[in-house]
């Protein structure tokens, strides 16, 4: 399953609110709804119109804001961030929002995404005498804005954004305004809502539901929105293009209760399971899913097939970061870590095991083995997305092709390697059908990691960047 | 849902192992699988044949054993406990196992259940000059054993057990033996397994699966098992009676992957949902369950009815004990705590909402309101157990009848109070059918809190005790 | 210096107050003034007339009561304890006060001292069916009291005290009274004071000064004082005998600002230094003391001799319990731990180095070496107490004679072993002169560890106990 | 005493080492010896020749490096810092060393002192497009260096230093070198030593003693030293001038065992006491000092006068940062905080109370009152430094003249305000005599806060800066 690559990817969550006197608390609750997008650090910056205040720390939102007194932050505007660490160092410095103060004003940034030309931009800035404090992409944008003149210039901000290549969703808070920006292809999710008169913005709509806000619309590809006390302005820093929202957001990253580009994630996953049955039916006794992200697809497969859905695998909820890993010796004796099979459900049964994806294949192999050890007669693996054969340059770094099992072995070889009785992937057209509903027909998705068709960015520069990485 | 009464009940988890050189670690993993049974404290006592060693603390298993070095415990035998605090004080003293040392030997006790005559027994012991250190029922048994002579006398232990009235599952560890005892009606779950040559015992079989152990059999009502290095002895301290295992263990307490008295909990819950559809069908668009304990029943209802199962409600996983509760003002503005509705799923739909039980009705009312606010056209509440109309004297203290909504209002009144379009409970015969499978036909369950028929204990003493409480 | 044996001894501090509405806070401040007597644990029990409340923990007073809300304790009476761990286990269970509850009332105990026949008494209690929870001597007294009948009987309490052999100062708090008891020889310090109308009692008078209380009198040997809301009662549980207050309290244990049996500790130490000069003068350039306990004696030596007192050794104040000890390699390269020499003071000088005592000689040797490495031309060691040649059975366990350097080597041998140019001890008559002032001429001190003359207790039983230990 | 103004001042400690494989550990021990110079934060940066590694945190050295694994830092060179917070925010960002990375190399800075033109320099840098991350003066130097070209240019570094006005001692660590710089007047202490072949540098020589290093020489005013693997280079960035080392370092800041500019601090303080007696003798029974910084002067006064030195005031050692402050009500009832009087020493006596300095007078008044309440017949206050009448612009910000009692009241008025029987200050010539020993006759001290004579810096710019502040 895709959780295998979580260590390699940059997938964060952002939340912002403007015009509510409980801005900091609401951001705290919003970040809870985005907690699955990053568990290494969290932070909130508020503005009271005069100055920005910051509280951030490493760990879960609850850890960082343990017994926190929100009156210390105050303010009627806030942005927040949950961080998933990647190749950047896992230090407090890199936890966002980043806050930059100067004698003429302050600026805080929260960012979800990956700037592909960050290294080059950083080199240019340092050459010109700048000192960058973090190893985060996000700081690069701050310096580009500062170089372009005063922090409060919208045209300077647009010039800075135009220098970035990549997938990104930015929230920028200043004393008297909040900026919202989405990359020209709209690769990252970013939605706008209202809570009474206040504006809210979040990576996923689940953050609106938790605070009782209403969804308004998507931030558009290449759009820069600025919210002031007396309203909001919108402008474009890139020409209008077809959106290419990352398909993996539907398959794995997002919460099932979120709507991405107006499509509900659980519903799309259930349709993936249904499409998967249409494409790869099998005679079996029970359907089971790998918790949590594959449950919806498994239920879809069960509903379409008429084979009963059962809980054949269970996740141990209380295994947190302080969990003491079993030694190799105990693992060999059968001690489980995160997942356990349910013997009475699978014993003597032909099992359809639905998972969201296969990356290296090691986890899948372990689960098939676990089910067989618990007595499953047959295990038929059904993957609710196409085989991942290409690296992603927009944020999910699957390193090199060498690690991707599907890029190196045939279906038959993989089936044997993981010890399954059969194996099938959902086709890319099946995935597209499952995701794209009526509401969003004109809007596209990015399936580059499966199909190899990358969305072209800015005068072909993207291909060059690809070759270099 | 029953979670409403969690604050009032004494429902813990016990785990023991004899004859494995990694006894302490395996107990740690076993306690993880029982973590849902008690999150206020955890502890492990080991024996290395010469002496007992203890580590315990307040909080989750992971908190208590954070970076713990198990070589400090050592030993080839261990018992462990996870605790849910009740009327007893929430102090470290009351966290189990309790360990008692003397110049002639030591004794550790771990206990799941409720001793109804604990107060009387405690008074008698103090009158005779004993000092009791904790406010826990468990210590009473230790003093009774000590009074009956040397700690290593099995007949003395049986005499002590015969003085107890109530529902209990005891593990007692001494330097050279482990005792296992279940109350005469078998109200609490307790199973025995094997891991290679080692014996294991646990409140739920999920603790066997996590360490790769195999289920052997149930501990019988009124049975006292003693395990030595050279084998195990079994004896009875009460005459053989029909078992009366608490039905609520199936409905709510236990993990879906556990088997209780050989019946799988998830499967029984799914059958509850199916029976519920047979008894109370309704025309609707989607079936949804209140996470986590009602999901299986909702899937059963969906499977039986043909109405699609959807995720209409979602639980926020990361809301732990350090979560800052929203103020009344924010709650009124719509900030959610543990559960959020999924607007795109329920909007404009007729929703069947399956829950496991109703106690006071306040949670159910809140969820119905939440679904309607998210746009549900109709909400039909289906409860996968009969109405709770009587207090339980065996451990789940529902205080007085006054708090039980079903004991005070008619079905119509409750329907109106919770704001539902319709409401139906599963019948007690339906619940019995769902739980009791072929394997366990002779074995009974206790549904006293629903039916008012209490299992009679020991010369009618139970009724007297009831009257007093 | 005596700090060498700190690990082996049982030397705690007790504080009590009756009749002040800030009883818990005042006890907290009082315990700060006694912190040097025990740093492993601290606790306070209060009574509000109805019930006792306890807060205790491991570590310093500041650690245990970090951000503590004293309104949780409340009450107008309190007893407190700081603990120095000895052979008993270092667990929270052994931290005092110990609190025992029963259905007829509660009792809390705080104790400084050592019960020599604790093992025998514990065996008798267990034989009779009691379960003891801690490995502390203190619990034995609680069980003896309980055995003798109701907790509120003063004659029962006296009978219980008569069964104890040893050195002890007890505070016992019940809902409606506080008991104060000192052993028949008065080996431990215990003073009574007044703060307005409230009674206070403490191991040292420094605890009175910190809260602004006034000294009233000593608790007498064999005296049992009981304080009620309407006054205090005094009675004796042992016949009147000459006091034998531990001389080491003056030499090392107590704070310089405390008065013990009306004699100021700093003043007595200064007199020790003066006597020491009279007995063992030497031609030298500077006098220096080993901080902290030997500074007063060094100043006395300097004052009597006319040789200037200088700071030739300095203690690193900030080296607490989390200090990372230097490796053997770094120590050999010269990295210091607690003490550093001051090169510019001692270089080329003949140094008189005053210390309070020598136990094993290893610390003394290290300091002499340190001074010589820093350039001292000569180092003359002057010890402000007689050579320790015998074990103490009353609390300071110097284990066996084997460890006591003075019991095994001649003065010349020790001088050579520690590398000093000369070495002299204060005589026992010198020590007696230094301690015993006019006010307390009739009162004796115990110098058994130096002279071998043990105070006789209770029908010669003490000698028997000595032989056994 | 001067501790009164500790909250207002910027007085930190720095330590560096080059060429020792245990560089990080030795820095840890060195920082312990400097802990009194700053307790709000601590940090260490190491270089292994390839890259710099940082560990820092808020609190004491022991807190920050609790159970720290020094192999995580590694390296053969290190700089460390202990910080005392001032007007700058007390956040982790401001804790030093500050570490700046770039694609061409890294640079860490540790700084003790105060840059008077920091605000102006910061404004210029921001105007030119720089983003500064901290509110610390230290970061300004980093940006000035970066602006002047590559980080590894010594002439660029000198240009940057020349832009600073103020009192400063800088350590700068790069992958392959360490820079040491002292301000042109040498206002701050900074010494160089050797430990085997390794170079060490520290604010005070006590840091050499703790690790067994030998003192070599002072860093000279206006000197820039650069240490490489193959030796050290020295150069000047300002013309040679007479040194003006802060006299307050002797009076209050430094440890008694340190030598500053080759003069031992304890010895100089003792001489201050002796000079003070010569200037202001008084008929009395005891001399006592306010612990800790005034003890040496009190001993000097006693030695010169023949009046015995006694411990009339005692400091409570265990009152740390988690100490719960007594309420106003309890303080009024006599609960002490840091200092207690020793009644048996002062009762009925004429007391000479020696203190190091008076700033606002409130602390002095409190101590006089404390001694009188404990029964002192007379209290004669003797201050071991001249009256502080002027603000300091080099680091010790005594805010405005308004707070300085000596700037606003006559000696008689102050005597009455503090309730003393007499009051005398040491004269500035007395102080100079006490500090300046034979070894350092040519070297001067700065007594501007007492005399108003400020050392002139850089073309008269200093006076301008003064006027502005």
TrEMBL record, chains A, B, C, D:
Glutamine amidotransferase type-2 domain segment(s): 12-230
Active site: 12 (nucleophile)
Catalytic reaction equation(s): 5-phospho-beta-D-ribosylamine + L-glutamate + diphosphate = 5-phospho-alpha-D-ribose 1-diphosphate + L-glutamine + H2O
Cofactor annotation: Mg(2+); [4Fe-4S] cluster
Keywords annotated in UniProt: 4Fe-4S, Glutamine amidotransferase, Glycosyltransferase, Iron, Iron-sulfur, Magnesium, Metal-binding, Purine biosynthesis, Transferase
Residues the record lists as binding Mg(2+): 293, 355-356
Record keyword 4Fe-4S present: yes
Residues binding [4Fe-4S] cluster: 246, 392, 446, 449
Keyword Metal-binding (UniProt): yes
MF term (GO), any: 4 iron, 4 sulfur cluster binding
EC code(s) of this entry: 2.4.2.14
Cofactor note: Binds 1 Mg(2+) ion per subunit. Binds 1 [4Fe-4S] cluster per subunit.
Pathway, per record: Purine metabolism; IMP biosynthesis via de novo pathway; N(1)-(5-phospho-D-ribosyl)glycinamide from 5-phospho-alpha-D-ribose 1-diphosphate: step 1/2
Record-linked InterPro entries: GATase_2_dom, Ntn_hydrolases_N, PRTase-like, PRTase_dom, PurF, PurF_N
One of the protein's GO biological processes: purine nucleobase biosynthetic process
Family listed: In the C-terminal section; belongs to the purine/pyrimidine phosphoribosyltransferase family.
HAMAP family: PurF
Job of this protein: Catalyzes the formation of phosphoribosylamine from phosphoribosylpyrophosphate (PRPP) and glutamine.
Name of the protein in its database record: Amidophosphoribosyltransferase
Upper lineage: Bacteria, Bacillati, Bacillota, Bacilli, Bacillales
Gene giving rise to this polypeptide: purF
